[in-house]
Amino acid sequence: MIRTACDPTIEKHFKGHENTITSLCFHPETTQLVSSSSDKSIILWNLKESVRACRFLGHKDIVFDVTYAPSGEVIASASKDRSVRIWVPKITGQCLDFKAHSGAVRSVQFSPDGEKLITASDDKSVKLWTVCQRRFLMSFTCHTSWVRCARFSSDGRLIVSCSDDKTIKLWDVTSGQCIRTFNDVKAYSTHVEFHPSGSVIGSANIIGCVKLYDVRTASLYQHYATHKSSVNMIKFHPKGNFILTASDDSTMKVLDLLEGRPIYTLKGHANGTGVTSVTFSSNGEYFASGGTDHQLLMWKTNFDKDDVARKMSRHLVSPVKESESNMKEEKSHKDDDISGGEEEVESLHEKFDTINLKNGRLRCEVPDTGVLDGNIEYKVINMRNQRPFEEGRIVNISHLSKESPGTCSSKIVDALNEQVQSLSDAVTILEQRLSILEEELRK
């Protein structure tokens, strides 16, 4: 497989955490990247080589989530120690903390205006807070088990949450009422996100699936069964045309929502380790990934610039399942996979400050950290030119000439029927997109 200008590439490679990376978030201006970890710390990575990285200590247990405010002036983190902390992302910064829940706090996010915080917890609740005064505003309490994640819509009027009770709930921020419930009888969701348009919800679950739901009709919009193990996190590209997934099967996948299929499989983290977190920069130019191998990789997106390819006639499909045979086909092309060469590694020696909150004071330390080898191997499997005909699988018809004419004709007709169905699905999706655009124009 030949490397193309549209394939994602690794730009930077960081290591400083001592345990699994649980969450990542870019600064709104893409000048910094913040990460949280099971090692109870938060690290602020400056993307300029001349500026030091900073480690923030203060949480007493695993830090599950971390996020920037829309202004980029403060950071919020959520921990298993039941607290939420608000940090000023500077060496001389301050930290405010408050006990948010009676159980582990799984997620935290700022509202689009930066004035409120939403938190989700193992105490089965979702709570709304003011940022400045850290004042409790409202609790959303219809879940019957741990709440894994809660996120605001782009206009701040809705909240979506997912729970171990195998439901996804949609909440009205003003009234505090649950206005929709999406049930998944097979498995619980690990992560939820709003599409940038606000009209679609994306969810990741423990059986390797990614599902998209229509907010207005409460119906399943698209379904991708693309991973062999749990999907830990998903992120929509800011333009809304792609989803990036992170899975315990050591891979990430890029899903093209316009075509309804995966177009890239990315392998950058160590074999046998899970990819636990992903995030896009605000302009979509970069994305980052973190895993159980304690490593953080920053990638150049590239695939969103494939304007020529996106103008080509391609089928829009509703994927159902990626077959094991397709996975084996990927492995058989191991020699054709793209391997990265000399990638830039962020050295932490003499460039790392630790901010440790102890007795109300901040102090700096130089941690004992290793420097990674500059050569990191990664693989990019490009599936753009592969067109699935049935259940997300690629049908190879090169062998049909060896079979009887009747069998050949039957299989060709089946393939044509699949293409007709794909065209029908394309029309349906285009109609839905047009209705969304019409609603936005009316606003």
Features:
WD40_PAC1, 443 residues, globular, 41% strand, repeat
Helix content: 10-25%
How large, in whole angstroms, is the Cα Rg?
Answer: 22 Å
Q: Round the mean pLDDT to the nearest integer and report it.
A: 81
Low-confidence stretches: 311-350, 358-374, 389-405
Q: Total helix count? A: 3
Q: What is the topology, as strand order, of the major beta sheet?
A: 2-3-4-5-30-31
Beta strand %: 35-45%
- Tell me the number of strands: 32
Q: Separation of termini?
A: 46 Å
Gross morphology is globular
Sheet/helix structural class: mainly beta
The largest pleated sheet is described as: 6 strands, mixed
Task: Write the topology of this structure.
Layout: E1 9-15, E2 21-26, E3 32-37, E4 41-46, E5 53-57, E6 63-68, E7 75-79, E8 83-87, E9 95-99, E10 105-110, E11 116-121, E12 126-130, E13 136-140, E14 147-152, E15 158-163, E16 167-172, E17 178-183, E18 189-194, E19 200-205, E20 209-214, E21 219-225, E22 231-236, E23 242-247, E24 252-256, E25 261-267, E26 275-280, E27 286-291, E28 295-300, H1 307-311, H2 324-332, E29 344-345, E30 352-358, E31 361-365, E32 379-382, H3 405-442
Parallel strand pairs: 1-29, 5-30
Antiparallel strand pairs: 1-28, 2-3, 3-4, 4-5, 6-7, 7-8, 8-9, 10-11, 11-12, 12-13, 14-15, 15-16, 16-17, 18-19, 19-20, 20-21, 22-23, 23-24, 24-25, 25-32, 26-27, 27-28, 30-31
WD repeats: 14-48, 56-87, 98-139, 140-181, 224-265, 268-300
Pfam family, one: WD40
InterPro entries: WD40/YVTN_repeat-like_dom_sf (IPR015943), WD40_PAC1 (IPR020472), WD40_repeat_CS (IPR019775), WD40_repeat_dom_sf (IPR036322), WD40_rpt (IPR001680), WDR55/POC1 (IPR050505)
